[in-house]
Amino acid sequence: xxxxxxxxxxxxxxxxxxxxxxxxxxxxxxxxxxxxxxxxxxxxxxxxxxxxxxxxxxxxxxxxxxxxxxxxxxxxxxxxxxxxxxxxxxxxxxxxxxxxxxxxxxxxxxxxxxxxxxxxxxxxxxxxxxxxxxxxxxxxxxxxxxxxxxxxxxxxxxxxxxxxxxxxxxxxxxxxxxxxxxxxxxxxxxxxxxxxxxxxxxxxxxxxxxxxxxxxxxxxxxxxxxxxxxxxxxxxxxxxxxxxxxxxxxxxxxxxxxxxxxxxxxxxxxxxxxxxxxxxxxxxxxxxxxxxxxxxxxxxxxxxxxxxxxxxxxxxxxxxxxxxxxxxxxxxxxxxxxxxxxxxxxxxxxxxxxxxxxxxxxxxxxxxxxxxxxxxxxxxxxxxxxxxxxxxxxxxxxxxx
Length: 401
Prior knowledge:
Elements: H1 107-110, E1 112-115, E2 118-122, H2 135-151, E3 166-170, H3 176-184, E4 189-194, E5 207-211, E6 225-231, H4 240-250, E7 251-268, H5 282-293, H6 304-312, E8 315-326, H7 333-348, H8 350-360, H9 365-381, E9 386-396
Helix pairs in contact: 2-7, 4-6, 5-8
GO biological process, one term: methylation
Organism: Achaetomium macrosporum
GO molecular function: methyltransferase activity
């Protein structure tokens, strides 16, 4: 579902830059996904068998998948709340938030747009970015970061990076990944860029954050980074091929690029996903909204990461295609943990994920509220054994480039 990245917040406007200096959140460890439903009530007794699949069948091969061509139900479908369901959308995940100081930023960057009381980045630069940038959404991004580490068996990256001297995190969001990476490699200079200044003020001395728009030509010196990390930018990039060419130019020969993305389309292996359910409509909502703003959300579904890396000139390209459960339904304890965090990331701020897209598609405030109520009820019921695809792709710039 949907990388702002945790990772991700998103890309960001060039020219206005900000530096800062704090304490990293500890990286938490676990294992990766599976798809066996748990028996209904009572503790589940089963051995952990979770695995991360190396290049399994593509998402299109899943017979129960909601395909990228599916069309969202009309907003009029969401007019009646589920019986007995609370419509409160105020859940909170990670209590501690660290919004950065904005004293050094111009008012144009901080002149946030507001939709139904939620703030989005300013009109300056990439004004079609779809995610909110307020405290509640920052909490969901940090939960997503933990989810991504669980899917990588507790690691925060997959590429065979060795002794990097300079690393770049595009769409750094809350900065949590950049901070963790800087703590792992204290001799490495880590730069995190984003369009919204929502990063913490206190960071490790080898980290700095900059306001920068990665959808524009990059301003970094060519051949200057040993590692470029990109996460959760679906719906942000108009031309992924041009985007990866910019990353290629910024990398030093022998440097690594790594891209983490997730498909918005969900599916069930056991036919427990009704096509008109709120969960099933999650993918079409983003696919249709993305078409309306000219930004694709089907990067994983169309294998764009690998194709764009190959076109840019990267070699030694590898990938992990991971089936991620959503909800606490899997029988395997480790997969259930993955599913609980996937659900938690969405439930922390359902509204922040969908509000821009529903506005683009002409939904009323009441229809959004009803949809959220249905989605919450379905996620918590454990009846819908839902999964989605997440893909990590990494490649190397040739030494001779």
